[in-house]
Amino acid sequence: MIAFKDIELKDKALFDQYFAARNYESSESTFTDLFIWRNSDQLKYAVIQDHLCIVAKYRNLYPYAFPPLCMGKSVYDTVLPVLADYFHSEGFPLVLKAVTEDRKREMDEALPGKLIFCEDRSNYDYVYSTKELIELKGKKFRQKRNHINKFKKSYEYQYEELNDANLSECLDTELVWISGKEGDESVLEEKRAVFDVLTNYRALKVTGGVLRINGSVQAFTLGELLNPNMAVTHIEKANTDYDGSFPVMNQLFTAKAWSHVPCINREEDMGIQGMRKAKESYHPVRMIKKYTGFYV
User: Fold this and answer.
1) CA distances from 128 to 99, 113, 211, 227 (A)
2) Concatenated DSSP letters of 250-279
3) Residue 275 burial (CB < 10 Å; 0-12/13-18/19+)?
4) How far apart are CA 80 and CA 85, in angstroms?
5) Helix axes 76-89 and 101-110, enclosed angle (nearest 10)
6) Alpha helices of 179-214 — where are they, by DSSP H?
7) 8 A C-beta contact, residue 128 and residue 283
8) Residue pLDDT, tens place only, 103-140
9) Which residue, of 49, 50, 89, 265, has the greatest Cβ tally within 10 A?
10) DSSP for 25-55?
11) 8-36, pLDDT tens digit by residue?
């Protein structure tokens, strides 16, 4: 019987070993992402045949697993049948989420005809050129430049790195933003994620940026290196009462924290049309396609 365990902060070293074995590009491929959403997604893990297997169950939906991770060559033909047997013993089929194209190909080669895949557009990751996000040159970024210029003319602002001195202000600001929304389950899930990443930012080894407007914290963001060539943005929050706060926060954080990295992964749009429009407006250089796999 496989015993899946809750994800705890002390597990970071183990997860980091598996993630470092390959240059993963999907936004789920960091311990931070798994740790801060561990409660809302009911994430658990077990090591099966030297593979790190992560399972999840969001709210009342069917459970699923992420593609197993290994430190060498993936042996999907041995580990996936074991994982499928576990799911069947729990009364469910094995469903795999966040399967990237390279891992889809490896699974098809290892288990021909055993997996059916369908595209999961809502979970495609948006990848941007760091240089473009900083410079915002050309006609396609004209509207972004206009928002930023209007912001700079309208407000006194200051950018700071996230540190112990401004941490409590970020937490207080987040509480103000979510006040009156306590009945929204998604808001409560995000509140927990933001609290966990802020209060554990040193242990998680994430980098954060804070934007003060007229003296008070009105935006903050956190991210980390996903691999040597790509950073990922985990959290980005801003007070939209200040027009231009989001593009200013994005530009400053990218310039201050990630100018040495070629690309930025700004995660998925979750099928939310407003979020999709916002992410497309920054003109991604490519998308990281993801699939849902069904073991048959």
Assistant:
1) 20, 35, 22, 15
2) HHHHHHHH-TTSSEEE----TT-HHHHHHH
3) middle
4) 9
5) 90
6) 185-199, 201-204
7) yes
8) 999 999 999 999 999 999 999 999 999 999 999 999 99
9) 265
10) -STT-SHHHHHHTTTTTT-EEEEETTEEEEE
11) 999 999 999 999 999 999 999 999 999 99
Give the C-alpha separation, 227 to 15, whole Å: 14
DSSP H or E run through 142: helix 142-154
DSSP H helices in 12-141: 12-20, 31-36, 76-89, 101-110, 130-135
In the numeric block, the tokens 């980005």 are attached to: 236
Q: pTM for the full model?
A: 0.96
Distance CA 131, CA 285 (A): 11
